[in-house]
Amino acid sequence: MGTIGLFNDDSSDSEVEVQKVNEKHVNERKVIKTIKHKNINKRRDFLLKSKHMKNKSFSNYTFTPVNPIIKEIRKSQCTNNWKKLSNNIEKESWLVANFKIKEFENHNFNIKSSFSEDFKKEIEKTQNNLSQLSLWGKSIREKETLKMNKNNDLMNKEIEDCIKYKKQQEALIEKKKKEELERKLKEEKAKKELELQKQKKLEQEKLEKEKAQKLKKEQEEKIKQQQELVKKQEEQKKAMANDTLSSFGSQKAIDEAHCYIDEIKKIKNEIRPAVKENKEWKKQSFMLKMKITTRVGQITNTRDSVKEISNALNDVLNQGKQISNEVYYWLMDFLGKAMMKQAEKEISINKTMAFPLAHIFNIIVSNHEPFFKIFMGRLYKKCIYLIPRYGYKTKDKSDEECLKEIGYKKTSEGMENESRYNERMEGMITLFSAIIQTPNTSGNSKLNMASGWTWLARILNMPPRQITSLTLITFLEIAGNEMLNVYGKQMHKLLNFIMKVYIPMAPKESIAATTRLKLFIEKYQKDGGRIDIPKGKNFT
């Protein structure tokens, strides 16, 4: 700030004057120096020139040989002359130079005296200006000092704030480090505790597992022993009951039937839960199930109906097979149940409906072989008399359990009445009788006339029960004509046996069914050994 004030507009005139005086003084000093050195330079040039001329003059002349003594004398004379001449020239030049110097010195003294007075005035003026400038600079410095002090105070405060903030940040960082360290220590501690707990838990689980395995082995051994004991007891009971068992059914027939019934149990225990657990299978099988229900309910006694519904049911089962094997078996089981319902409700009332259903059964079996076992399992489960087998009461069985065993259904009012039960049994025996005489498209039917003959022989080997007359008359009304065509004389003998031996053995409670059976055989005998073709067999 101080240096800026020296070049303000107020002091510009004085500065110009001082500058002019300085230039004047400098120029005069240059002139004096030039004059002082001019003569000296001239003298030097003269000496150099004369020396050059001297050398030149000698070089331009040629000398004739002379006496050496003369030569030496001449040489010395010439040298002396030249020395005198140069000394004279030098003295003259010095005199001229000194004179000129004195003139310039006098002139310079006059200039100096006049210049010094002007210069003193200028100096005084300049000093005044400088004193003013110094005062002005001092005031500015004081102002700037105050301003700088304020700025310094502010800066010091900011520095202190920064230092304070830095300390706070360092304290926070230190605090965070401590907290982080404490957290890590806690985590490590918790981790160690968790590992210890896991180890303890694993050890405990191991001990429990070992205990469970040990207990399981003990239980298995115990169960095995119990099973062996039960097996022995059953064998003993079986051995004791062998004599009387034939009165309830053929053991071979019962074993054969159980093979089919076990298939139903397998579907119930394994396949049905698998389908229910899989949401996609459940959804798809539900849609296909609805199609089966609809189609079975649409069966009529016409060939077109049989063909259309058979194709539709085949398509449904094929779709199920593509989804999964479980869905396929589940749908076949559902179709078997649907056919049983049809036999219980429709065929028991209208026996002619047995034949279209028998045709559909054979078509389905020819395309889906596993359906045969499922259907037979359902048929034997619903009607034990087709095995054939009778129920029997023991001390540990209640009346309700005995009724359930032979196929009675429980309703809201209790167990169904005997009339409804007999109707259902009659419907299923009718379906069985229609199937054995319906030809299979593949020509290899497992349920054929031989199956009918075996069933008839087995049931006649058992003591008659209240239901027996109903089963016999139902079978003969539907399959009697075809049985007579196939077995001829043997069938004739069997009918005579029923008339003479079996009917007299029938219980009094089955008088209605026994009377129907007796009238049927009497008509056969009266018609000359001929049985009418059942209604609905030859549908178009």
Automatic annotation (TrEMBL):
Domain of life: Eukaryota
Keyword Methyltransferase found: no
GO BP terms: poly(A)+ mRNA export from nucleus; protein transport
Keyword Metal-binding: no
Gene3D superfamilies recorded: GLE1-like
UniProt GO molecular function: inositol hexakisphosphate binding; phospholipid binding; translation initiation factor binding
One cellular component term from this protein's GO annotations in UniProt: nuclear pore cytoplasmic filaments
Annotated compartments: Nucleus, Nuclear pore complex
InterPro entries: GLE1 (IPR012476), GLE1-like_sf (IPR038506)
Record's keyword terms, sorted: Coiled coil, mRNA transport, Nuclear pore complex, Nucleus, Protein transport, Translocation, Transport
Coiled-coil segments: 168-243
Family assignment from sequence similarity: Belongs to the GLE1 family.
Name of the protein described by the UniProt record: mRNA export factor GLE1
